[in-house]
């Protein structure tokens, strides 16, 4: 999970020989436009579906910060991403953990 309400993960560039480094999402709700990880030996993770999202240059992955995910191991090649995290300005509307980014204004 991310300490945000919304996360935008931009892939700026990746090498042609990139192997690995997908983002794996855990959750019961199908992500729009994402192929289910049918090839994984354990793609249910105890009843929880998993979805792999490839990081393609020039594209962004947008998701709720509270959506459980992990980045898979980079086995070969390189990629450069910029990750933006957004929190609602009204904390009463936010489910984000603000411990990483928020500071008290003085």
Task: Report what the structure shows.
It is a single chain. The protein is mainly β and 106 residues long. Helix content is 0%, strand content 36%. The protein contains no helices and eight strands. The protein is globular and about 45 Å long.
Major β-sheet profile: 3 strands, antiparallel
How many whole angstroms does the radius of gyration measure? 15 Å
Low-pLDDT segments: none
Overall structural class, as computed from helix and strand content, comes to mainly beta
**How big a fraction of the residues is strand?**
35-45%
Distance between the termini: 29 Å
Question: What is the typical, i.e. mean, pLDDT?
Answer: 81
What is the number of helices? 0
Helix content: under 10%
User: How many β-strand stretches?
Assistant: 8
Overall 3D geometry?
globular
Spatial order of the strands forming the largest sheet: 5-1-8
What is the string of SSEs from the N terminus onward? EEEEEEEE
Please give the structural blueprint.
Elements: E1 6-14, E2 19-20, E3 23-26, E4 50-53, E5 60-64, E6 69-71, E7 74-76, E8 79-86
Antiparallel strand pairs: 1-5, 1-8, 2-7, 3-4, 3-6
């Amino acid at each position: 999970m991310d300490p945000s309400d919304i996360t935008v993960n931009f892939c700026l560039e990746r090498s042609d020989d990139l192997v690995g480094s997908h983002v794996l999402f855990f959750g019961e709700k199908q992500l729009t436009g994402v192929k289910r990880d049918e090839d994984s030996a354990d793609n249910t993770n105890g009843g929880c579906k998993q979805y792999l999202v490839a990081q393609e240059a020039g594209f962004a992955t947008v998701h709720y910060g509270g959506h459980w995910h992990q980045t898979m191991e980079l086995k070969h090649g390189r990629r450069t991403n910029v990750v933006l995290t957004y929190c609602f300005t009204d904390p009463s509307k936010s489910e984000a953990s603000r411990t990483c980014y928020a500071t008290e204004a003085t």
